[in-house]
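Record type: monomer structure entry
Structure origin: computed from sequence
Chain ID: A
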Amino acid sequence: MAKKMKTNVAHTDQVPVNIGISADDRAKVATELSKVLADSYTLYLMTHNFHWNVTGPMFNTLHTMFMDQYTELWQALDDIAERIRALGHFAPGTYAEFAKLSSIAEPTSVPSAEEMINLLLQANEAVARTARSAFECADAVNDQPTADILTQRLDVHEKTAWMLRSLLA
């Protein structure tokens, strides 16, 4: 018989967290960060998929660009998940949890190179919107470490979106 999945914001309850942010506020921030993690992981997977499957005249450029992007995303995933843990909550870590939390729809087939660029543009903008919302939550409860992570993520995703948009011009 299958066990019920615990929610991603369950408190670890082993040793109390006393970092100057209330338990309720830490739960709110962890919930928002879990959405950022889910969007980031979905974008990572999409970008890696496109790296493997891109074809056409821009193959080498896109293959290399996508590798740079998914490598940066892979490293960022750890920072986001570890911040959720530092707040005293478990980070989501399954495809089912990510699918439930993510705002990004994954493609159901292998798109053309131009459509890959467009889908990654839209997905980077989606992560930026999710990160901006999470930033507002972190800022409201005076959570500077989370706000710092989110500011860095906003910078990366907005710059990546600009670069992808430039390829479509």
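Annotation 1: The radius of gyration is 17 Å.
Annotation 2: Confidence is low (pLDDT under 50) at residues 1-8.
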